TrEMBL record:
Residues of the 4Fe-4S ferredoxin-type domain: 386-419, 422-452
The name this protein goes by in its record: Pyridine nucleotide-disulfide oxidoreductase
SUPFAM superfamilies: 4Fe-4S ferredoxins, FAD/NAD(P)-binding domain
Keywords: Oxidoreductase
GO MF annotation terms: oxidoreductase activity
Classification via Pfam families: Pyr_redox_2
InterPro entries xref list: 4Fe4S_Fe-S-bd, FAD/NAD-bd_sf, FAD/NAD-binding_dom, Metab_Enz_Cyan_OpOx_G3PDH
Amino acid sequence: MKRYDLIIVGAGPSGLSAAIEAAKRGADVVVFDENAKPGGQLFKQIHKFFGSKEHHAKIRGYRIGEELLEEAEKAGVRVVLNATVIGLYQDKEIVVRIGEQVVHYKADAIIIATGASENMVTFDGWTLPGVIGAGAAQTMMNLHGVKPGEKVLMLGSGNVGLVVSFQLMQCGCDVVALVDAAPRIGGYGVHAAKVARTGVPFYLSHTIVKAEGEDHVTGVTIAEVDSSFQFIPGTEKHFDVDTICLAVGLSPMSQLLKMAGCAMEDNPKRGGQVPLCNDLGETSLPGVFVAGDVSGIEEASSAMIEGRMAGISASCYLGYMDESERDAEHQNLMHALDGLRQGMFAPKNKGKVLTETEEGIAISTNLLRHGYLTDEEVEQYPGVTHRVGIHPVMECSQNIPCNPCQDACPKKCIKIGEKITSLPAVDETATCIGCGMCVASCSGQAIFLVDETYEPGYATVTLPYEFLPLPKAGDKGMALSRSGKACCEAEVVSVKSAPAFDHTNLLTIKVPVEMAMKARFYRADEVAK
């Protein structure tokens, strides 16, 4: 029986982060993962992360995955793929199925970083081909280059539903609607806004009645629900679709921990059955640690920090570092983790209905119901100003832990302050040079450059643009408003791409000056007739 200092189950963001920390300190580490490729969800995540520099802010998930794999290789971590761990026992023995073999391994410490699995909901026709999970859609698109469908309805308005809806459109799919039984959008407002301005309608307090079709999905019927989530007769709506995508939450994959006899609890705020563990990530079984979504559903940024914490804790348990060093490292990591657990979407606020931001600004009910700020609402935020010449307009309306725009501006036009969740504001004493770095760095695509003095009667609006094919200077199309409705004809002035923008192109359009604060998206196929 092969023996290691440390066995890690799961080669996702938390597992790899844990392996790196332990291997750097001299531990003999092996990571088992059931998939053919390491990295977990990171290589599906083509969007930019939120947070600060220490949280990999404004870096796309797959790039973070590449960095982790490179770091793990340098540290000497052994990663075994296509290896399904089917048993975990109290004496730190695991059973792994590798191909046709079943192999036993033992370790002095174990970290379980198995992540989470997608939830499903049942409805008439839910087993038809064409009903898929949002994670499956991401796998098809972003790992294998396969288009999931032509016309898609998305169920679920959390961050996964919002992000995957946008990626489906980037893939060339027509997202006909975004539906959620809840009365308000569950994910970040900036994610909802970038979907809404493309023209996707939101149906809150609605859910699926049935999927239609004989041998595959050909349509779907939704209906409004009341406060008890019962269908309201007469509110049915039909859509012709070939794909129904479900983004209805995640559940921790904690079966191995339960099998080993770890103390567990049913905690809805953390996603379901999770192990009881201390601040070091250690379960009720000494030497068995957890990291990432298996101990509670959070973002990948949090999972990586938790992985590092577990790797350090395991290193101390194994004798590769002393407790004082562990505690110092742990304190720094807790500070970084605490930064991600602040703001309106903090765990402590889960289930609460907040009515105003930390700055005392009323939270937009239109944003929560329809996915976009109204023209009147947008004016109340500190990032929205009217200045002579080119200047940033930051339509960030929720307290989210994120500050790359502040770091990106070379002229310090943008200020957030020490509190990472504060709404971005414009420094009136600084002068914008129109470089566009703030637009490209914004993980929520919520920053625009506006110049209402471009030429008599016309203004320019510089938008973040991540669709192909790219428009060309001189092209004419239609500008869409925040609600996704056509608001005016628009002419492309320029399209800028640069390595520093990391695939976020800066599309500058010319619009009538009165539309400068309304035009927020460009569509080439809706030229005014």
